Amino acid sequence: MSAPSDDISFHVATKLGFHRLFQYLMGANLNSSRIRMTTPVLTSIVPGAGPLHSSAYFVRLYLPEKFQDSPPVPLPELNLHPDRWPSHCIAVRSFSGYARDNNVVEEAEKLALSLSHSPWANSTNYPSKNAYSIAQYNNPFRIIGRLNEVWFDVDCKSAGIEAY
């Protein structure tokens, strides 16, 4: 399930998008179904799509398998949309701490630099419309031992790998 946001800040977009998704999980859907929370919370960054050519964001949660084929319809005021991802390959870089405006771009740049010296040097952003995504695995109350990842979509075939 996806919560679009055109907020200027990664942190604010993630917070507000997650709040809408959490309401959905707690029963703000046409079935009043309560849905178990999954991880990660994924915020995808789409550069230049927001106001004044700033970034736009999609905050996403995976639904448990039970709801994937037929997700409960969210209440219209939540502005949520089902989001299906086809099989694809991603390059991942882990980082700790909190994912914030001041470090997500830096972590994405580190992954891009690492990929520039690999077989995937020219295969990022394929065929994705997202620049990158940030996966956050821990609740905000966990201070130590936090796990986050930056994800780039990559073209598996350019490196001789098949996606299934």
TrEMBL record:
Stretch forming the signal peptide: none
Cited InterPro entries: Reg_factor_effector_dom_sf, SOUL_heme-bd
SUPFAM superfamilies named among the record's database cross-references: Probable bacterial effector-binding domain
Listed Pfam families: SOUL
Family according to the record: Belongs to the HEBP family.
Identification of the protein by name: SOUL heme-binding protein
UniProt organism field: Oryza brachyantha (malo sina)
Lineage, opening ranks: Eukaryota, Viridiplantae, Streptophyta, Embryophyta, Tracheophyta
